[in-house]
Amino acid sequence: MRELLLGLRLLLGSGRGNRVRFLLMAGGSAVGVCCLAMVLAIPGILAAQDGRKAARSADCCAGDRPSGVSADEAPLELSLTDPYGSRPMTRVFHAPGAFAIAPPPGLSELPAPGEVFVSPQLHEELRKEPGLAQLVPGRERGIIGAQGLAHPDELYAYIGVPRQQLQSGNPVTFYGWTYANDETVEPSTLDIVRFTLSGVVLLPLIVYLSVCARLSAAARARRLAALRLVGLSKKGVQRVNAAETVAAALLGAVLGLGVYAVANQLISRVGLPGFRWYPSDGSLSLTATFVCLIGCPALAWFAGAVGARKAAANPLAVRRSAVEKPPAKWGLLPLLPGLGIVAGYCVAGATGHAPRDTSLSSILMPLAAVLVGVGLVLSLPILSRILSRAIARTSRSLPLGLAMRRNEVEPGGALRVATGLVLLVYAASLAQGVLIELDQVSKNTSPVQSYTLSLDGVTQDRQRAFEAVTGVRGHGMEARSWRDREAEFPPTINAVIATCSQLRGMVPDIGRCTDGRPFRVVNPHETYDEESKPGASFPFHLRNDRGERRVIAVQVPTQQVAFGDEPGLSALSSGDVVVPPSFMPDGFRPEGASLTLVSSSAPGTVRAVLDGIGGVDPTASVMTPGVVVTALQQITVVKTILGMGMVLGLVIGVAAYVVAATDRAVERRPQVTALSLLGARPRTLRAVQVAQVVLPLAVGLVLAVVAGKAAESSYLVTGGGEVFWDGAGLPLLVASALGVVVVAALGALPLVGRRIDPELIRRD
What is the pTM assigned to this prediction? Predict the structure, then answer.
């Protein structure tokens, strides 16, 4: 306890410079803890959104209805999710039943037929886009509360309809599930995000907090050595040092949490691209708060203990500024196996033997990324010392020789100055690999977009209205022949009912066909349906709007027409039979048939077609192959989170460099003063300072770019995508690295003071 009190007395009574250093340590820790809190808050934000999704999910249970009332008399609901641009829009159609149920979260009551409850964002969209009202028919009854929405920007609506209009709905007696079946981010994807954020933010953050905890390390070590020489024990020296570092880190942690609370209120209201949350969702959990309040001081204590170990063990060497021991070669140990694994995967991808999502790759790839990252940190002093010694032996330049000799005797300075930015560049390459893989998943390369609707319960007039929607360039019906369910493997064929012009609207590169005659379609790049043999006959069951039934036989024709690979009609495959509409009896169509519409894939056209379909029948369930809007939304959220991580990593990396470079320059003022008294010019001293900073930083950045691109390629090789080698981001990465070197060089120039103070060479 006495040593702790002594440390606090030294902190408060050892001069203005020491107090300024304490405030800088606390401020630096506050920035780091604020960034850490932002990263730790992301899982809580996603969990809160998924919790509200689960709470509004409808279900049916026999015990929740009044006695004597059957489940068939329960209220009905139908939930539809459609793409609105790149965002999902969910519409829940509700039809009342024989008994009332409690409303879902966010509503005071359920909508009656003709009434609508909408989210605030959908309310704004309805004002901007009047055509959207076709999808949300009815009088706006109110706004859905925050308890019923996943996030403030969600497009959500509860629409009341008559019961006879919702025959395809599901009975519902209560709301609330224990889990969400449509997570904001899937667990497997969330694991990738966590791993990437660990590399982009947490690794540079550990380095940054360690740098802040060791501000003025040389001056503090000499002071601790003096205490050791006057009789203080080794453990006492450690406690005196811990009093200052832990106090600064604890104060910084409290300030950082306060800064995060303010930042959460501001950012949650402004929002990030594609990702918004309510301020309460961003509140830190008790566990995350303890991590910030305990983890940061614990890291500061550990970093301070490592720095004070030499002063406690050999105080005379510290007081006399003895030459440091060269870094041990074992620092290269993590880098070599990490690069070996990465290189192995790169060779496997280049030779066409890429592993496809194996359990071994899921372990080796993260392990390799961690080993390379740790290896870059530990090997930087070793490589900097070796290179500095080689340059100093061969160089005839005085500034370069002085700089290299200084880096040779003090290689640990390179670690503090360059590590943050080196890790940032390395992590940026890994994050780019994740973004490339996500881009492969989300990219829509098809020139056309198809829409599939079931025709069960759809009248002929409504079908014609669907076909006439503005933006539709082709349409056709698809049906499967009747199948004998008692047979084990009954033969069936697929038939497409369309004219040649309608078919060309969906598949422009189809061959020459004749209207009024059936034919087979053949794709030379697909496997032909063996059951579709010319001359074979297959029955099709038909029905009209009045419920009358008929059966016709379709014989597989000998005439065939080739078509290409351009995406169009999703059910069109090699061996299908195209039947002209004139072959169908008037008013009849196949049972179980579906209607496929095709339009351009331009976002505006897709939006117009969906609006038109909603205008014909708002409750129509539309499938849009190739556009999984919930997946697109998830990818947008992941990209935003990774982008936020990159920004935080950049802030941390730059802050770590500024703090370390400034602190190192201040510690070297006695040496700079001595050189000035010996006659060194200011230009020479500035050149020495720039060379000291630029060389280890340049070495580390070259290693980070090379290792990062190799790790990125190995990640893409193990990801199962089509892109292994991506050079699009390399120029930006190299330009950023060069920019960092230039900024570091310019930032080192003012660190050599113009005023010579001889007191610096004799003052303790």
Answer: 0.74
